[in-house]
Amino acid sequence: MTTPLLSSINSPTDLRHLDRSQLKSLAEELRLFLIDSVSKTGGHLASNLGVVELTIALHYVFNTPEDRLVWDVGHQTYPHKILTGRREEMTTLRKPNGIAGFPRKSESKYDTFGTGHSSTSISAALGMAVAAKHGGLERHSVAIIGDGAMTAGMAFEALNNAGETKANLLVILNDNDMSISKNVGALNNYLAKLLSGRFYDTVRKKGKKVLDIVPPVKEFARRAEEHAKGMVSPGGTLFEELGFNYIGPIDGHDIDTLVDTLTNIRALEGMQFLHIVTQKGKGFEPAEDDPNKYHGVNKFDRTNGVAHANSSNKTYTQVFSDWLVDMADSDNKLVAITPAMCDGSGLNAFSDKYPDRYFDVGIAEQHALTFAAGMACDGLKPVVAIYSTFLQRAYDQLIHDIALQDLDVLLAIDRAGLVGADGPTHAGSFDLAYLRCIPNMMIMAASDENECRQMLSTGYQHQAPAAVRYPRGSGRGVETNNTLETLIVGKGEIIKRTSLTDGKKVAILAFGSMVEPSIKAATNLNASVVNMRFIKPIDVALIEEMAKMHDLIVTIEENSLMGGAGSAVMEAMQTLNLSTPSLCLGLPDTFIEHGVHETMLAQCGLDSDGIINSIKNKLSSI
pLDDT value at position 237? Predict the structure, then answer.
């Protein structure tokens, strides 16, 4: 694969030296390079293919990095990385010590704001625009946000606030949910150029000043302008009311129109809103046909799009998916809610079978939880399928709207613990700590596939707030029962007892994903192993038994060590006035960089070898 134009671009400065006639060829090369690169590393594909022309146009028109580009969500920034000096580093994408799959301020001066969660771009870009205004700087701030991210309340909070600041801000809505139909063609492209031009902008502003002294005529003119814009985009009126000059929609793959429109907008002052329409997966037929499938991909064959084989074990997400349908079959009060993660959270089968009981609320985690609370108030049994990292965004709703009222809501928390290549923005490192301090919560951590199913049933039948956390990816290969059996609430399970008759006896109290490496470590140490299962209510009686029978209590969790499950055990021992020496192992007080999950655990001392070494070091000191 030859990419002569792309190979000559080592920075946006090089890009701006190209003749405009070369940009279409550059877009073709960039798209081919992107497909080839992601096929070898895995990552986000469809969304990146959709912004190739937009990325080129932005860096061609704006003086980056002095002008600020803030990308939302961040998984559409591969073309941006490639054009900003990281083309050769794409072979390291999402690998240990390689470049991240999302923008990182520490990675490049062109990454002006780190974004892994959605709907933050307008707020951040507005803050930058206000900072530029405060400093008297002629600098442009641009937020690029997708139509999915616009479903979050935070985006509208920022739009509403922007009207008060009257800063120089450009918001680009990348709308890839609608097809590029006839109305987004020549006429719209022409009107966008016209409406973004200085002549129209001057007439509009001066006309408003003149008509201020004749309010009825001014109102007539305003309505006439709204109707004119509404003929091509009825939704534009909303953004006009918020104080933006709305332009579009235009074809986001027509690079000439993009460059012309952005050039015009760059010369304008105040708040501008550009609506472009793109196609996810553009230029790669498998991704065009099924953009959801190619949103996040493993390595694949670029000739046909077929992904390389993964583990044959059932994933925890599949376990949840199967359980949800089975439980819904037995209880017509069950409803399922997801904040825009139907596929990722395993809700496809449920949504197909029970469409009237399935609710995708968009990227609106706060709403999702309060929505569930309202359902629970009136007799439904809501199950909220949510990633650990995204649950963080709805913390007040969990406390104020669910736990405080002791409502019957089940949280199925996927991606708990470290998540490998997606890195710290998506790691579920904190849920045990931030959940267990909330009154009325029941919290469980699954150690295998069948236990995950049992815990989901337990949490569902428990008539109060409950949470089940489980890791990303495949399980241990344990067969799941077809029944909907439950566990005894608050009871752990002794898996192995030490056979030592002399010497120092060790009891390992393991939580969730840490049970398996603990069993391996215990074989070397001849230690006892307990699968604690419940973080809250914690099995106090079992802790007391282990503490009185052993010389060292070790807790292990794939969660923040500070305030996590180990802290719960220590608190219980303190309450019981137990002075048995203890050792708590978990994730350290730092954000852990992306990499291979197993390697990341080893670096944190949470593989079997690390557990053995930590325990031996502790034993030598007691």
Answer: 72
Q: CA-to-CA distance for 128 and 503, rounded, in angstroms?
A: 63
Does residue 182 contact residue 165 with C-beta atoms inside 8 Å? Answer: no
Share of the chain above pLDDT 90, in %: 80
The crossing angle, in degrees rounded to 10, of helices 52-61 and 255-266 is: 40
- Rg value, the chain, Cα: 27
Alpha-carbon span 71 to 73, nearest angstrom: 6
What is the C-alpha to C-alpha distance for residues 337 and 340, in angstroms, rounded to an integer? 9
Quick check: 223 pLDDT over 60?
Answer: no
Identify the pLDDT of residue 307: 82
Sign of CA dihedral 7, 8, 11, 15: negative
Measured distance CA(493)–CA(511) in Å, rounded: 11
CB 223 within 8 A of CB 158: no
The CA angle 533-535-538, to the nearest 5 degrees, is 90
Pick left, alpha or beta for residue 423 (phi over 0 → left; psi -120 to 50 → alpha; otherwise beta): left
User: Tokens at residue 445, please?
Assistant: 């951590």
pTM of the model as a whole: 0.88
| Alpha carbon distance 456, 413 (integer Å) | 10
Q: Which residue has the higher pLDDT, 294 or 207?
A: 294
Band of pLDDT at residue 181, cut at 50, 70 and 90: very low
Q: How many CB atoms lie within 10 A of CB 244?
A: 21
Residue in the block written with tokens 């109305």: 183
- Tokens standing for residue 593: 């960089």
Q: Which helix (H) or strand (E) holds 26?
A: helix 23-41
Six-digit token string for 276: 């472009």
Residues 6 or more apart whose CB falls under 8 angstroms from that of 131 comprise: none
Please tell me whether the peptide bond between 588 and the residue prior to it is cis, using omega within 30 degrees of 0: no
Residue 236: both structure tokens together: 């534009």
Instruction: Round to whole Å and give the CA distance between 60 and 285.
Output: 27
Looking at residue 317, its pLDDT comes to: 97
Q: Which residues are catalytic?
A: 280, 365, 393
N residues, the chain = 622
Position 238 scores a pLDDT of 81
Q: Rounded mean pLDDT of the chain? A: 90
CB 438 within 8 A of CB 428: no
Give how far the C-alpha of residue 324 lies from the chain's centroid of Cα atoms, to the nearest Å: 22
Tokens of 373: 């609370």
